[in-house]
Design brief:
- The chain is of the alpha+beta class and 503 residues long.
- It folds into 2 domains: 246 residues, YwqG-like (Hypothetical protein YwqG fold); 178 residues, no CATH class.
- 30% of the residues lie in helices and 20% in strands.
- The protein has 11 helices and 18 strands.
- Helix 2 packs antiparallel against helix 7 and helix 4 runs antiparallel to helix 6.
- The two termini are 50 Å apart.
- The model has no long low-confidence stretch (mean pLDDT 92).
- This is DUF1963 domain-containing protein.
- InterPro entries: DUF1963 (IPR015315), YwqG-like_sf (IPR035948).
């Protein structure tokens, strides 16, 4: 080859390592290095990134949401084949409220040479989830305006792992099986599908979240309470001679058939086998529930034996439901005022919580509703069911999220009961679908597969769905930020690209 001949471009870089962003459990409250969520730390001359969304250009320019800040000095020399920064910090911002984030408006990568002070977000920063696309919900907020503008701050350690991939069937897999157990050796790790049961509030703020969730899930109706529309098919059916009486007869026949089929579980000597005893107890409870439902329906139809009386009842119960709903919301607001009088981040006595919960459960309304039913393969028949709702029916406390908020707060972590902590720490160590947050190396694709071998397309960030952070990207997906090796060599992060993959 002549000396002045052009040098052919590299086919790509063979990466030997990847860096996993391992959540600190428990968090170490020490000088900041790398973290997810919270607030960025940037020199004062660095502006908070903003963009005009390609999906919502009418909303004008808006701030992006801060995701992560990584200490480049902690990155291994081998990462990205030796390219990229090893001083300063890399910051990732995204627009989490786009359905198909693909353009430069959806994210921003910053490289800063110093930490600077913690930066408060711009006043016009929107909610982390606007409710348009799928994601974790915020039902514990009274209104959409109260949805958080930022995620909790969780420090991470940068763990260097070999950059390895394997072929399984038609897919390329990167993370080893049960990767969380490797990242947290000798520590309990829950299954990624094993979420802790919802727990009772243990502080006054937890009680407040329960009350606020009721306001969110059961807001005032937009229509007048007496605006119930009775469908023509209901009137036609109930007008047929003998039809109202047949409603109970159908239930009685169905119950008789069920009883005959279940007779072996209902009668005879008590079985010795524990599983069979449990089955008998369940069957007997079901029989009692059927009897109670049948007797209640008989009483309802006896009190309302005609089309006119049934229609009158439906209109009246709709009005009464509206009146109860209005009064219930006022009572919940009163309970909220009482809770707000306390130091929210202080323990709520067990008896105080039990009394509040009992009042919410007892604040109830019982009524009958009609529904469509099939009879012998024929559709659009009428059935009636009794319902009971209470103020408690609408609670969506999400105390799990409060536990996580307390856990990453040095002053508030002692509020968490030890039994709760022992259940949640294994859960927070888990990886949703075995997919970590990572920098460099092969990506853990959902819809795409990493190509084994040299590559010009280097992974800047993989940010996965994460229960501990309350992150759910699309349908439990992940963001992938890539950059061409030449752009990374020039430290030109404006050339990076982003992709969202989900199920």
């Amino acid at each position: 080859m002549r000396r002045d001949a052009p040098i052919p471009p590299l086919l790509g870089i063979s990466e030997s390592v990847s860096v996993v962003l391992r959540r600190q459990i428990p968090p170490r409250f020490e000088p900041p290095r790398s973290w997810l969520g919270g607030l960025p730390m940037m020199p004062h001359h660095i502006e908070w990134p903003r963009s005009i969304s390609s999906e919502y250009p009418d909303r004008s320019e808006r701030p992006l949401h801060f995701i992560a800040q990584i200490a480049c000095a902690d990155l291994p020399a081998e990462l990205w084949g030796g390219l990229g920064p090893r001083q300063g910090w890399l910051l990732l911002f995204i627009d989490p409220n786009q359905g198909a984030p693909q353009g430069p408006d959806a994210f921003r990568i910053l490289h800063v040479d110093a930490l600077g002070s913690e930066r408060e977000p711009p006043a016009d920063l929107g909610p982390v989830h606007d409710g348009v696309y799928s994601g974790f919900d915020y039902d514990y907020c009274r209104t959409a305006d109260e949805v958080p503008r930022r995620w909790r701050r969780w420090p991470v350690d940068l763990v260097v792992v070999p950059n390895e991939a394997r072929i399984e069937g038609r897919r390329t897999r990167v993370a080893p099986e049960n990767f969380a157990s490797i990242l947290y050796p000798g520590q309990p790790v829950a299954s990624d599908r094993e979420r802790p049961d919802e727990i009772e509030p243990f502080t006054w703020r937890g009680a407040l979240r329960v009350l606020d969730s009721m306001a969110r899930t059961y807001p005032p109706s937009a229509k007048p309470p007496d605006e119930l529309k009775i469908p023509d098919r209901l009137v036609e059916r109930l007008s047929q001679p003998g039809y109202i009486g047949s409603i109970l007869a159908v239930i009685e026949a169905d119950d008789a058939n069920w009883t005959a089929m279940s007779r072996a579980d209902l009668e005879g000597p008590e079985p010795e086998d524990e599983a069979m005893r449990l089955r008998r107890a369940q069957t007997r409870r079901a029989a009692e529930n059927r009897r109670t439902r049948r007797e209640a329906l008989a009483a309802f139809l006896a009190s309302h034996p005609t089309l006119e009386s049934i229609v009158d009842y439906l209109h009246r119960s709709e009005r009464e439901l509206g009146e109860w709903s209005t009064a219930m919301r006022e009572r919940v607001a009163g309970e909220r005022s009482v809770v707000l009088a306390h130091d929210l981040d202080s323990p709520i006595p067990d008896d105080a919580w039990r009394a509040l919960k009992a009042r919410l459960q007892q604040d109830a309304f019982r009524f009958w509703r009609y529904s469509s039913a099939d009879r012998d393969g024929e559709r659009s028949h009428v059935a009636f069911y009794e319902h009971e709702i209470s103020a408690w029916s609408f609670q969506r406390g999400h105390i799990r999220e409060l536990v996580a908020d307390y856990y990453v707060d040095e002053a508030k972590r002692p509020l968490i009961p030890p039994a709760v902590l022992s259940e949640f720490e294994p859960y927070w160590r888990s990886l949703y679908h075995n997919r970590p947050h990572r920098i460099g190396g092969y990506h853990d694709g959902l819809q795409s597969d990493a190509r084994i071998g040299p590559t010009r397309k280097l992974l800047l960030f993989q940010i996965a769905t994460d229960d501990a952070m309350h992150w759910c990207w699309g349908d439990v997906g992940a963001y992938y930020v890539f950059i061409d090796m030449d752009a990374l060599k020039k430290m030109d992060f404006s050339q990076a690209t982003i992709t969202l993959e989900c199920y």
